[in-house]
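## Example pair
The file below holds two records. Each record gives the amino-acid sequence first, followed by its structure token line.
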Amino acid sequence: MQIVLRGVAQVMFQPHAGTGLLFVAGLAVGSPLVALGAFLGSAIGTGVAFLLKFDRTELRDGIYGFNSALVGLALLVLLHPVPATWALLVLGSALAAIVTHLARRFVPFPTYTAPFVLVTWLALALVHGVAGKSIDTSPPAAPRTPAGFVEAVLAGEAEVMLGSSAVTGILFLAGIALSDWRHATLALIGSVVGTLQSIYHHDPSGSISLGLYGYNASLAAMAIWLSRSSLALSILAAVVSVPLTEFFPKALGIPALTAPFVVASWIVLALLALDPLLGRTMNKASNVQRADQPKAEVT
């Protein structure tokens, strides 16, 4: 049970069962069915990792649960819960664990939630090819009255797992803080930056209210912090994620999911690899690195 909950918690880089429990509770506020999908996905991914004898330390830390948890909840958000959806959930969650294992062995940089994105896109293409788009659920309606700034920022936290409730966002932040208050702070800063940037870009107010420009920014800020412990670099990653979030739905006609976060993080890591001076300069500018800072898994 604890390993499965750690798998859910690793969606936001936390190897803490209590964090995973608060994440599941946050999901249940919006939809108990989606919360079940996240838990089942993590359990399936963890079970596959155990059966295939993947690294036991990684297994214990929930590394093989988080992509599978995202697949499980995403399919129940995007598709009606018919038998085909449940079959895809099982197969997709298992495949996500295997892809995560292969990525960690053969890709020389963090792949983050890329296995979830690729497996979910594949599952959607498969089900649409067989059953058409009648199986799709309706996208969430934008609020008639645009949410306030604070509510939009909190919705950005919730959208990390395809929720849009401020209450869910609060529970997610509380879960992260239970594991590491610094990471919770970075998650909040990222969503603030993404929301402010989307307002500056005059993006649709309904999308802003749903948190669609905050969640990738939140994840990107946390991911880069785990790699460099630089506030300036984390903010840069959050800023880069917003145009990518704007691009994906308009240009590709597919759900963006967490792809903008992954690509934004890769761009910043590539810049640092090409110009190490940038990393040293940004680290000095942020002046926030602490020698006693605990390390978290960069997935």
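Second record, same layout:
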Amino acid sequence: MQIKALPVGAMGTNCYLLEDESTNAAAVVDPGGDAGRILAQLRADGMTVRAILLTHAHFDHTGAVSELRQALPGVPVYLHPADAALLGSDIFPPIGATVPYDEGDALTVGSLTVRVLHTPGHTPGGVTLLAGDALFTGDTLFQGSMGRTDFAGGSYEAILASLRRLGQLSGDYQVLPGHMDASTLERERRSNYYLMEALEG
């Protein structure tokens, strides 16, 4: 398993390429912009895209979806139904048809398994994706912080419950957030005020 991070779009959103070198299959996580650069990296790596995985539907995480659809016909775009229901506004722009995924679902990318954890709070349909030792946390958990809850559909209580759930996962994981730098779950348990508050709740 190989993971590459590409800061994309005007907000520098972290787009991740989850690659299985044994089968040359890949998934694109949160393509927020710069479709050409994403496609160029995938071509350079010799990867075939099997899925586009969205942690949530805010514009800065979906900005390249339409262009990727044109370049990758037939590749499914996965999104939680609670966010799919909000598509059509400025902050949740339309992106075309999506395939629903939800808590407990497992997808395959080559020989890799991606498990879906529903982690609402930043948006109602926010998910965290678990692949190997990596947690793609979207805008739920950041290094030293958490996602905003003052946008439409946000909930402070819900995101604390989601943080508590992540913090209670057994063992340690790479934390690969939608913005800012990567971290580890153990580091966040020790130093992230919001995660510590959630775990005390």
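Notes on the second record: The two ends are 35 Å apart (CA to CA). Residues 156-167 form the longest helix (12 residues).
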